[in-house]
Task: structure prediction
Amino acid sequence: MQEARTQEGSDAQAMRETAAELRAYRTRPCLLYISRQVAHADVLALWEALGEARPESLDMIISSPGGDIEAAYLAARELRRRVQALTVYVPFRTKSAATLIALAADELVIGPLGELGPLDAQYKEKQAQDFPLSTSRLLLDTALRELEERAGTCYDTAIHRILAQTKMRPFEACTKAAEFVGTLYGPLLAKLDPVRLAESARGLSLGRAYASRLLRRYRPALTEDDRRLLLDRLVATYPAHSFIVDREEATELGLPVRTPDRKEEELLDRLGLQLIEFGMEEDVIAMAGLSATTIAAAQQVLDRIPERQHPADSPRVRRNREKGPATRRTHGKAAA
Result:
């Protein structure tokens, strides 16, 4: 176990050292934000990491698969209350709620392995197993729109066929077509719960509303139409929540993307590879280039936050417990 803890420490230390190199190269403060799941506890961790500092400019390296959209909004807001200019570096996956934080940046620098993601909200759907399934709130909306489109097409086709093959008048043909479509699609539409549809709509509007506020406050040059189009694409147009919004896609969206220079690309590439190799079994929320004593004190605060602990009976913990010591893995490496 001690060996595993030592390995975890070295993994996090490698990323801290890379972040410190970026800080030295840019000669401005750099915040390293690696989060397994964006949560309200992150706001406290950010406060601890920043301390009393209110730098004019701040670089932020962020990587997270997502999490609580409200926590992401609070984290972005608190960062922008402290700094006048924010540059966000994306070395690896910065998805969902983490993408919302990135929208607050004045400048986005996306590495070769970096990616943002859509803002369609997720919810936990109960399953027969002992853990819920994460599902996009776009699912019900997509189902409704698909049924509406198919029912309309079926209605038009039925009218034309009835008129072409019978001597019915147009009004009668429309009536028969409506009866046919109602019989075919009525049972399908009846299965859609209006309460769940409303919940999905409200969930999607939540992410849109927070993103709109961040863009309006911190990117005032965007017109209302441009802001609406950007949010429409991020919230509702991508085919999957895991869709990759890379550097080129982010530029097409109108986000403030800057191509990294040679040194920045080298550091972002290294961070991306470290995140792939080590995984995200540990949160690292700290200013780069601080003393070991300061980092240790901040990490102790982070480790005590209940939201940062894996439940003792979680599926991941149980699976790891069932493995033998030689096959357990910590950040991609076997640990006893």
About this structure: The two ends are 6 Å apart (CA to CA). The chain has two domains: 2-117+244-334, 133-196. Residues 133-196 form one domain. The mean pLDDT is 80.
